[in-house]
Design a protein that fits this description.
Number of helices: 10
Distance between the termini: 28 Å
Largest sheet: 2 strands, antiparallel
Structural class: mainly alpha
């Protein structure tokens, strides 16, 4: 299952080669959906309003509906997760680059939080209005976990290697594509963006992930 801002494209692409006939796979950041007796790969790219049976970031319940209970229950399922505070920064640089305050909102926030920097104000405003990605529907069905293993972004290679061992698949770090979709400015530190209200907002919105996976703010 593919989550958002967790290096999901690279992870998905690594395992794609085992879902295609020999010689068919090539490292593509975007691809059409693929379905054969070798396996299924979801469409990866911009849907543009099109309805496609298999597509990236599908909710787990939808995948289960398509494959049926027998296959779903018998297959080994995994997905990637990431520290919510770090995930929000990554999403901010990817999705929030065009975010702008409405003048009234900007003024009200500055009055309420006069000591915040310009970057902290903008980040807090985006957290309120930018809808940071909450994608627990990729590993929960009816609020219950439906995944066998999780790949932690912070421990990505080791966890992927472990999953390969579970599945009897070869692990080769050199096979892991490095799609440079990350638009984050690495010179910006968490403390440059996070204020107390921003920290509290992430803690509230990602309470499930923080409690379940024992994540902490590391800024």
């Amino acid at each position: 299952m593919k989550t958002v801002k967790t290096a999901g494209t690279s992870t998905e692409s690594y395992f794609e080669r085992f879902c295609m006939h020999e010689g068919e796979w090539e490292p593509l950041r975007e691809r059409d959906s693929y379905e054969s007796d070798a396996g299924i790969i979801g469409f990866r790219g911009h849907l543009g309003g099109r309805k496609i049976k298999w597509y990236n970031h599908m909710p787990a319940a939808e995948v289960k509906q398509h494959v049926g209970d027998e296959i779903w229950n018998s297959y080994y399922k995994f997905c990637s997760i990431r520290n919510p505070w770090d995930k929000c920064i990554s999403a901010y640089f990817h999705f929030g680059k065009d975010f702008n305050f409405k003048p009234r909102r900007r003024i009200a926030q500055k009055i309420r939080y006069p000591l915040l920097s310009k970057d902290q104000h903008r980040f807090l405003g985006w957290l309120h209005k930018g809808h940071p990605p909450i994608d627990r529907d990729k590993y929960l069905i009816e609020d219950k976990p439906c995944i066998d293993r999780f790949i932690r972004f912070e421990n990505m290679k080791e966890d992927m290697k472990s999953i390969c061992e579970d599945l009897g698949l070869p692990w080769n770090e050199d096979w892991l594509p490095r799609f440079r979709s990350e638009t984050r400015n690495r010179s910006v530190q968490p403390a440059d963006l996070y204020s107390k209200p921003a920290h509290a907002l992430v803690h509230k919105r990602y309470a499930y992930e923080i409690e379940t996976f024992n994540y902490q703010y590391t800024g």
